[in-house]
């Protein structure tokens, strides 16, 4: 296991800053996920750690050693790419042993490492097959195994599951998590898939425009997003946002949108003074309750119902804005029906409209 320390890292292509004075500390044995949309800099950061890109400024330390200008082979890392990058003319055994032979390791040690990796990844029956005879999931296991046999302290994953179908992604996600629990190596994993991030990570670094927007454990990222971007990026569907301002209701702060007022008693944050300040209220679909015929809540109109098997997603019009709620299947709600909504202020998020930061 090894720590990774990134200090004031900057990478520019001409006048374009791709990574901007980035700092990140990764503990021994930690599973860090770099999450964000395309072009946010997550894969670029991973390639800098791997030594595949030369940085413009800053330093990278792995295991306490400054590796900023070292070659990839000297950094003590194993990397798994989005493409399997297997040698088609070689068997699985040949693919796993190729790098080890180049290191001139003894044959007995090579066989020992291959056997250990094959057992961990459950690919022992596949060792004599060629990549063309493997499924996509099996090929990705081999690609992971090629990194595993190097016996390194740090593993880097660059969107390794994005080429697989949904079922295989789910299965391999479990395998990667199990692999981390067994090996306890430091792992850095790049993805744009928030489900992968939430299920795999010890901590998630949400990136945008070459900057880490928030670095925290999955529960904090999901329940207390630091800004509007993180709140909207995390969640499927994403958090619903209502535009309004702060007011006062019975002497207590409240959120007002249109002619409707939502009390904020118990909000887990610092509600600004009731001075008409422009804010945005964010609510997760599972934190919205629906009452029939507008009873016991704020008036809304059902727009669309999306049955999703284990639950249903109901989209509604509320104060001229769109909001979603997660409900049990068979709820009996129909398009155009009037309902009453309820919010739990303790589980909502309140953002400043100008800065987009969470209060």
From TrEMBL:
A single Gene Ontology CC term: ATP-binding cassette (ABC) transporter complex, substrate-binding subunit-containing
GO biological process terms held by the UniProt record: carbohydrate transport
This protein's record includes keyword Ribosomal protein: no
Ranges where the ABC transporter domain occurs: 4-234
Annotated keywords: ATP-binding, Nucleotide-binding, Transport
UniProt KW Cell membrane keyword: no
Protein name per UniProt: sn-glycerol-3-phosphate ABC transporter ATP-binding protein UgpC
Underlying gene: ugpC
